[in-house]
Amino acid sequence: MKSVILDVDTGIDDALAIAYALNSPELEVIGLTTCFGNGPIEYTTRNTLVILEQLGKRVPVYMGADKPLCRPAKKFPTHVHGDDGLGNQVGRAPFMEAENIGAVDYIISEVKKRPHEITIIAVGPLTNLALAVKKNPEIVSLVKEVVIMGGAVFVKGNVTPYSEANVITDPEAAECVFSSGLPVTVVGLDVTMQTLLPNSTLEDWRASGTDVGQFFADMTSFYMQAYETFNPGIGGCALHDPLAVGVVIDSGFVKKEKWNVKVVLEGEETGRTVAHAEGEPKIQVCTQVEAETFLNHFLGRLF
Ligand code: RIB
Ligand code: CA
User: Fold this and answer.
1) Which helix (H) or strand (E) holds 18?
2) 198-207: pLDDT as tens digits
3) Tens digit of pLDDT for each residue in 6-16?
4) Ordered DSSP codes for 168-226
5) Distance from the CA of 16 to the center of ligand 2, in angstroms?
6) Topology of domain 2-301, per CATH?
7) Nearest protein CA to atom 2 of ligand 1, as residue
8) Of the residues 74, 123, 237, which should be mutated to test ligand 1's pocket, given the most ligand atoms within 8 Å of the CB?
9) pLDDT at 288
């Protein structure tokens, strides 16, 4: 069993990733750390607590960064995740609250307490992880593995033609993480755009007759409609964040190549993740995915 810290900016695919991780016996999610990204930090933290309550799970949640390392925050992607970040399905406030210590201090303390045991799965902007490395560089040699959803190495971006959302939201944080020497695996658009959740899934979830199935179907339908609007005929929505979890559960879902990935920090191509053959550190870039195998595994685990 892998001990996991899941760093999220809970929006809709983050919520699907949380459900997948918490329903997978291969993982022990010891903590959830939150970041701004798909909404303000207050929303993404609230949303994480809402999803835990929907799932009937109690996992400590640690509130993190509310803005990028050194540039102004971009407009939140409400057109993809809804005004509340969960497809406008948030009703009442959650009963659960976040813990008293912050995400960055939690990451540092947990990694130092359990050297070479903690896998960090980061599916939002990399601000929390970058702040943790800057505050305590020794954690670089103590983290077991880092798997991130982010980047578009050999394919076009989803925010600009060059850049993927998590990276362009905080390019300096991504560059810090990629150059730190952390053992990073990049699960980018190169593979996540191949893992589409079919539209028909929502009816299956509704047919389950459970409140959580209904909630997740109603939440995900907003994301589905956004994908159909921006990619007419696509027939589904991308399981970006769940695939990062899937790669930790079973790395056999993907093929990886070692590249020195650097982030463009200025100009028209800001946020682009560029693969260099020369130079260090080498990180693992996912270049192929067994999409149907992964999708079936994900669906089999969800509820
Ligand atoms: O580009 C997709 C990524 O940006 C996903 O993590 C999604 O949740 C958003 O954060
Ligand atoms: Ca995310």
Assistant:
1) helix 12-22
2) 999 999 999 9
3) 999 999 999 99
4) HHSHHHHHHHHHTT--EEEE-HHHHTT-EEETTHHHHHHHTT-HHHHHHHHHHHHHHHH
5) 10
6) Inosine-uridine Nucleoside N-ribohydrolase; Chain A (3.90.245)
7) 165
8) 123
9) 98
Query: pLDDT for 22-35, tens place per residue?
Result: 999 999 999 999 99
Q: 254-263 and 283-289: which strand pairing?
A: antiparallel
With bands split at pLDDT 50, 70 and 90, how would you rate the model's confidence at 46?
very high
CA of residue 10 to ligand 1 center, whole Å: 9
- The pLDDT-based confidence of 151 (bands split at 50, 70, 90) is very high
State the Cα–Cα distance between residues 133 and 71, nearest whole angstrom. 19
Tokens of 40: 């303000």
Determine if ligand 1 sits within 6 Å of the CB of residue 158: yes
Cα–Cα distance for residue pair 283/179, rounded to 1 Å:
9
pLDDT band at 303 (very low <50, low <70, confident <90, very high): confident
Whether 84 is in the pocket of ligand 1, judged by its Cβ within 6 Å, is no
Q: Which residues of 258-267 are buried (b: 16+ CB within 10 A; e: fewer)?
A: ebbbbbbeee
Strands 2-8 and 27-34, sheet pairing = parallel
**Catalytic residue flag (residue 240):** yes
Cα(35)–Cα(129) distance, integer angstroms: 10
- Among the listed residues 79, 240, 276, 297, the single catalytic one is 240
Domain residue spans in the chain?
2-301
In ligand 1, the atom with minimum distance to the C-alpha of 12 is: 8
Residue with tokens 């540092």: 108
Nearest to 111 by CA among 131, 147, 140, 135: 140
Over residues 44-48, mean pLDDT: 98
pTM over 0.85: yes
